[in-house]
């Protein structure tokens, strides 16, 4: 029998789109623009020399330029001289870094730290730390899978925790009328939460409002959370940068731990995820599960930044230099708050502006309305988020007077 030669059928890759067929992605809707990145894009497109960007959440010096700390530069020089290897880190990161960072957060006299009851893992920035914590809680927290966020909170908190498998709800925090803390509303909402719920708390320099509880208010919050058997998850993104004092900024975390709370902590330097356990053997089990959470996410964290931070934290001279520089940064922002307040008062700006000085950290909820922020962008070339939040680090000696005058005009309707 004679074989009949047949041409082989050509199999097209699945991603090729043919005429008349529907793309696999045709039903994907366009996502909304990022509210903060959109501010930066508008700022970059503006050609006016007076333009000011108050949307970016990064420190700028008094000339409006990014600032590299001397402590970081010296640490990099030491690392370059040591010529260390470039091997992969373990899943939970550089041990000397996580150990030093935990000491910075919890304090050298922390009982759980001394008793080896804190499971700590290095992550990839704040988003990574929060996502690890959220996924771990979503998988292993044995109670209510609901996390309550302050209203408002950092915009990325909600998608992070939703994608972690947690239900996200809110509790009262900011009072628009007083441009301050709605403490009574916060306490009432905490008391009405189901037992064993998870509560996210900003340890210091609340983002985006700049409004923090006082130490006495933190103590009452701790008591209510304990009475209601709630689980506190702290996000501490600005330790040292809020007041210039690392111990003062860690008050809430250290008080809660001293009061016997088991907590989760997302800590910035650059970012760690930590959780207190009741015993070293429990800590070891938590560690093992954190590794399982991290492995399919990104396997292991970056090495270079951890080495820089570790070098600074474990070297007495560099640590002292770093603390002094952080204080200078914090003091510059505090000075900008005072000058802004004084300028607005001197210009007879309608309203009460003391909240500018009372708030703390990088951000301030100014109380400006959406029409006012729109006018400032279009007519004064000053860019901020529509809700009136500004990054105080974007203000400096060269633009503070122009900003103050523009805000005063916007509030008076004269812009």
Show the helix and strand layout.
Layout: H1 35-45, E1 52-53, H2 70-82, H3 95-106, H4 111-114, E2 118-122, H5 125-140, E3 146-151, H6 157-163, E4 167-172, E5 174-175, E6 180-181, H7 183-192, E7 198-202, H8 215-227, E8 231-236, H9 246-249, H10 251-258, E9 264-267, E10 272-276, H11 280-294, H12 304-314, H13 316-346, H14 355-358, E11 363-365, H15 370-380, E12 382-383, E13 389-391, H16 400-412
Helix pairs in contact: 2-12, 2-13, 3-12, 5-6, 7-8, 8-10, 12-13, 13-16, 15-16
Assign the CATH topology of the largest domain.
Answer: Aspartate Aminotransferase, domain 2
CATH hierarchy: architecture of the largest domain: 3-Layer(aba) Sandwich
Structural class: alpha/beta
**Which homologous superfamily in CATH is the superfamily of the largest domain?**
Type I PLP-dependent aspartate aminotransferase-like (Major domain)
* Strand percentage: 5-15%
N→C terminal distance: 94 Å
Gross morphology: globular
Integer-rounded radius of gyration: 25 Å
- The low-confidence parts are 1-13
Mean pLDDT: 91
Largest sheet data: 7 strands, mixed
How many domain regions?
2
Q: What's the helical proportion of residues?
A: 40-55%
Number of strands: 13
Task: Tell me the number of helical segments per DSSP (H or I, 4 or more residues long).
Answer: 16
Give me the side-by-side strand order of the main sheet. Answer: 2-10-9-8-7-3-4
């Amino acid at each position: 029998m004679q074989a009949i030669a047949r041409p082989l059928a050509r199999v097209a890759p699945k991603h090729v789109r043919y005429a008349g067929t529907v793309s696999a992605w045709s039903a994907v809707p366009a996502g909304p623009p990022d509210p903060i990145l959109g501010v930066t894009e508008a700022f970059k497109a503006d050609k006016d020399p007076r333009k000011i960007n108050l949307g970016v959440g990064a420190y700028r010096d008094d000339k409006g330029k990014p600032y590299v700390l001397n402590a970081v530069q010296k640490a990099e020089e030491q690392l370059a001289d040591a010529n260390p290897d470039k091997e992969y880190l373990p899943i939970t990161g550089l041990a000397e870094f996580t150990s030093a960072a935990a000491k910075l957060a919890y304090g050298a006299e922390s009982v759980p730290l001394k008793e080896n009851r804190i499971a700590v893992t290095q992550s990839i920035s704040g988003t990574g730390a929060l996502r690890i914590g959220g996924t771990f809680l979503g998988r292993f927290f044995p109670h209510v899978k609901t996390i309550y966020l302050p209203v408002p909170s950092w915009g990325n908190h909600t998608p992070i925790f939703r994608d972690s498998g947690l239900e996200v709800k809110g509790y009262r925090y900011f009072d628009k009328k007083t441009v301050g803390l709605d403490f009574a509303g916060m306490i009432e909402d905490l008391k009405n939460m189901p037992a064993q719920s998870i509560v996210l708390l900003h340890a210091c320099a609340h983002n985006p409002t700049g409004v923090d509880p006082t130490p006495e208010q933190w103590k009452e919050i701790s008591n209510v959370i304990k009475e209601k058997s709630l689980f506190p998850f702290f996000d501490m993104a600005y330790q040292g940068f809020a007041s210039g004092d690392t111990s003062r900024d860690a008050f809430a975390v250290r008080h809660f731990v001293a009061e016997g709370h088991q907590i989760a902590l997302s800590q910035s330097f650059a970012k760690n995820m930590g959780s207190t356990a009741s015993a070293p053997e429990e800590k070891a089990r938590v560690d093992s599960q954190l590794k399982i959470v991290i492995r399919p996410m990104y396997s292991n964290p970056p090495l270079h930044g951890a080495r820089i931070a570790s070098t600074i934290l474990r070297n007495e001279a560099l640590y002292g230099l770093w603390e002094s520089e952080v204080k200078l940064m914090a003091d510059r922002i505090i000075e900008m708050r005072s000058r802004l307040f004084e300028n607005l008062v001197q210009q007879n700006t309608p309203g009460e502006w003391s909240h500018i000085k009372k708030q703390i950290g990088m951000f301030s909820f100014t109380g400006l309305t959406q029409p006012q922020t729109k006018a400032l962008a279009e007519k004064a070339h000053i860019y901020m988020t529509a809700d009136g939040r500004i990054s105080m680090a974007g203000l400096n000696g060269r633009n503070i007077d122009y900003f103050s005058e523009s805000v005063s005009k916007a509030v008076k309707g004269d812009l």
